[in-house]
Write a structure and sequence with these properties.
This protein has helices spanning 3-26, 31-63. It is mostly helical. It has one domain (3-63). The longest helix has 33 residues, at 31-63.
């Protein structure tokens, strides 16, 4: 496995981790608490995914 493939796989793992963190944040909370936590959790997920997409785009640009 070359470095680019490994970097791509690490980004996939990080993306999965971001989704799992989101799910952990909103699972098993009361309905009242859910309305407080969910916007924060979604914003955090969105920021993490944005960073991952940006790094993936740079990785793909260097691969070409």
């Amino acid at each position: 496995m070359d470095c680019e493939e490994e970097a791509f796989e690490l980004l996939l793992i990080e993306e999965a981790d971001a989704w799992f963190e989101y799910l952990e944040s909103i699972t098993e909370v009361s309905e009242l608490r859910y309305h407080e936590v969910e916007p924060w959790a979604w914003s955090r997920l969105d920021q993490r995914l944005l960073g991952i997409r940006s790094r993936r785009a740079r990785l793909e640009a260097t691969a070409v």
